[in-house]
Specification:
Length: 727
């Protein structure tokens, strides 16, 4: 329980700085509400619950001061305040515990909070003082610092106002450590560094404004500078990553082997397991630039478009049962064609967000058909294309960020003038088309104030409606402009996360001050390089996978063993459902049959989540009834292990008369070469001497035949972590 008392030296200093005896007028917004928030009155478990507490409801974290003022001063016939005798006000009686209060005593009579509240009631309870400056920014010091283990540090928080004045609000701010093993913080901003090396973030929040303090704890044993100078550098990515490593006192792992790189980059770029022949040729290739050549070859592979269409389908594909089969099919076809053309990313987004026409003729209209209301489009656009989660701001001020309801509904206003005609949500197959177009009229209003919202993107300028001009065009122009703080960063961060197992900002769609990037310079450089090359996705992917950072081994060294944030070694990633199923099919030579697709279609060619497949469901294919975006869960599960071990479908593939394994069994290759072929096909590498020795034992088991031994060996390799994971 937080109790504010003048016995606390920080509050004594605050009282002195605020000028007691009271000289300046006291306002509700700048003087009373901060103390009530610090006392916990506006917390989600107290009076800021959705239903309030005991008929008294405050806004979450004070995001709506006008509402809070009305609740305290006007609600219940004004019984909570008593101007004639301020000390007798129910507001203070309950807060001090003099009247029974479920939350207990939150402030004391000798506290600064009590004195401010008494002075405010005595002054007539003004909402604001005429002409008083507005809070513009909150800054914490030190913002970034290297610490020793077990060191302590008192943070200082300054509130900056519109007239240039500042106020020390250290004692009134809220603090949260996001990495308590690195550093913890108490309710008054005193940081205590732990015993673990790494980087932590302390989130500081005051009256809806947020700032962060970075706590960096390098390893105790400093590494010589020359070690970093000798590291191979493939491009600018490596320089920026190494600089971060040097600051933390860690060294990156060694470079992965050619065999590991072949499998890793093939799975990442085109979602396809290399063949044994491809592995044999790549291993034997002695050219020094063979990795770059392989990357260029893969980016020309036809599977590239299918692989990335599945990934983007997860993010934007509606449920066919909601919008109809044909619109979803057309949207999938549009996605595949866009990746096939290597359409610039900004053009793809423009076509998607400014779509018009029939849902049975133009794929992107399916998104409008699904996100039918402007308020639905707001959270979708912000999360997918800007990496900003505005969902909380739909109902109230974001609890840990600056976003307000105005931000949410101003973004929705870009879609407020869309018109539609025809059958809406309909039966999946027999549904009629729906037509969408810019209508030139319409508005979005604030749900609390009923004010008409002027279109404005997050952290962007207001873009008032102009007659005859579709506001969505202005939005997409802003997205692709150099003034946009999110657009390029959001997509490069998403691609980076897909290739390296973690975003520079993580989660990838949660850009906010309180969730800073682990390497801000790297994110800035990637975004600038991507936009300066015309938003070319293949250029972005080529740049990342050609870096040595991407090509690091998954084996950690002594210095980076505990690091999982700074890309000092490769993180093992489970293959997605479609890619893993195709890998099993490539190894066995037998494909699954999917309804509505031609025979021998690959799993990455499936175009909606409702096509029957127990394998895809077991390995994390999104539920078709979920709202997009449907992020994949990369964690392994017992269901997945049991499916691979016991699946009748897998056993059928292993023993199929027309499969690759049966052909090996009937061939004339000696057993050691058979084992080598299976290893090359499954792992894209040769077996070690011990692996070869162990594998040959399958052929000498009592009652075993050549066919059974080959099937058992393939089954064992498929059920291994090396097959299921990309590393």
């Amino acid at each position: 329980m937080i109790r504010l008392s003048l016995l606390n030296p920080m509050l004594v200093a605050l009282a002195a700085s605020q000028g007691w005896a009271q000289e300046k007028p006291v306002s509700f917004v700048h003087d009373v509400m901060p103390h009530l928030m610090k006392a916990g009155c506006a917390a989600g478990n107290c009076h800021a619950k959705p239903e309030g507490q005991n008929n008294f409801k405050l806004s979450v974290f004070g995001y709506d001061p006008k509402h809070d003022y009305h609740e305290i001063v006007r609600d219940d016939r004004g019984r909570r305040v008593f101007p004639a005798a301020p000390e007798e006000s129910l507001l203070l009686k309950k807060a001090t515990g003099e009247v029974p209060h479920e939350g207990g005593a939150r402030i004391k009579r000798d506290s600064l909070a009590y004195r401010y509240t008494v002075a405010w009631i005595r002054a007539g309870m003004p909402m604001e003082i005429p002409g008083e400056p507005q809070l513009a920014q909150v800054q914490v010091e030190p913002r970034e610092k290297n610490y020793r283990k077990a060191e302590t540090q008192q943070l200082k928080v300054m509130a900056k106002f519109s007239d240039g004045t500042q106020r020390d609000v250290t004692a009134l701010s809220d603090y949260l450590s996001q990495d308590k093993e690195v550093a913890d913080v108490d309710e008054l901003g005193r940081v205590e560094v732990g015993s673990v090396s790494g980087e932590g973030v302390i989130v500081v929040r005051y009256m809806g404004f947020v700032d962060v303090a970075r706590v960096t704890v390098p390893t105790e044993k400093a590494l010589p500078t020359e070690l970093y100078a000798k590291l191979p550098v493939n491009n600018e990515i490596d320089r920026l990553v190494y600089a971060r490593h040097q600051k933390l006192g860690i060294l990156p792992s060694d470079t992965c082997t050619d065999e590991e790189f072949l499998r890793r980059v093939s799975m990442d770029l085109v979602g396809r397991l290399p063949t044994g022949d491809q592995a044999r040729r790549f291993i034997a290739d002695l050219r020094t630039d063979k990795r770059q050549r392989l990357v260029d070859e893969l980016l020309r592979d036809p599977n590239y478009a299918d692989h990335w269409a599945v990934k983007w389908g997860d993010l934007i594909r509606p449920n066919p049962s909601r919008v109809g089969v044909k619109p979803v099919y057309l949207l999938d076809a549009w996605l595949r064609d866009s990746f096939r053309q290597n359409k610039p990313y900004d053009q793809m987004v423009r076509e998607l967000l400014t779509a018009e026409g029939s849902s049975h003729e133009y794929g992107p209209v399916a998104v409008l058909r699904d996100k039918r209301e402007p308020i639905d489009a707001s959270s979708f656009v912000s999360q997918i294309f800007l990496g900003v989660r505005l969902d909380c701001a739909k109902c109230h001020h974001h609890p840990s960020e600056k976003w307000t309801q105005e931000d949410y509904y101003q973004l929705a206003a870009f879609f407020g003038q869309m018109k539609r005609k025809g059958q809406a949500i309909s039966a999946p197959i027999s549904g009629e088309p729906e037509y969408w177009w810019y209508g030139g009229k319409g508005e979005v209003t604030h749900p609390v104030t009923d004010a008409v919202m002027v279109p404005k993107p997050p952290d962007g300028p207001e873009m008032p409606y102009v007659k005859g001009q579709d506001p969505r065009v202005a939005l997409t122009d802003w997205m692709a402009s150099s003034d946009n703080p999110f657009f390029a960063k959001a997509i490069v961060n998403r691609i980076w996360s897909d290739f390296l197992g973690r975003g520079i900002v993580d989660p990838v769609d949660d850009f906010r001050v309180s969730n800073p990037p682990t390497n801000e310079d790297l994110l800035e450089w990637l975004a600038h390089d991507f936009s300066s090359h015309g938003y070319d996705l293949k250029h972005l992917m080529r740049t990342i996978v050609n870096s040595r950072t991407y090509q690091l081994s998954s084996q950690p060294n002594d210095s980076n063993l505990a690091d999982n944030k700074n890309f000092s070694h490769s993180l093992k990633r489970r293959l997605s459902a479609e890619v893993l199923l195709d890998a099993v099919s490539d190894l066995t030579g037998i494909r699954d049959a999917f309804s509505g697709l031609p025979p021998n279609s690959r799993a990455v060619q499936t175009w909606n989540h409702e096509l029957d497949s127990d394998f895809l469901d077991a390995f994390g294919r999104p539920n078709a009834s979920q709202e997009c975006p449907c992020e994949r869960d990369r964690k392994s599960s017992v269901v997945q292990a049991l499916h691979l071990m016991n699946s009748n479908s897998l056993q059928t593939k292993l023993s199929s008369p027309s499969g690759k394994l049966k052909a090996l069994a009937k061939g004339n290759l000696p057993e050691p070469k058979v084992v080598t072929e299976i290893y090359l096909a499954a792992y894209n590498r040769l077996p070690t001497d011990q692996e070869l020795k162990t594998a040959l034992q399958f052929f000498s088991q009592p009652g075993s035949t050549r066919e059974i031994a080959i099937e058992d060996l393939a089954w064992a390799l498929i059920n291994s972590a090396e097959f299921v994971f990309n590393h």
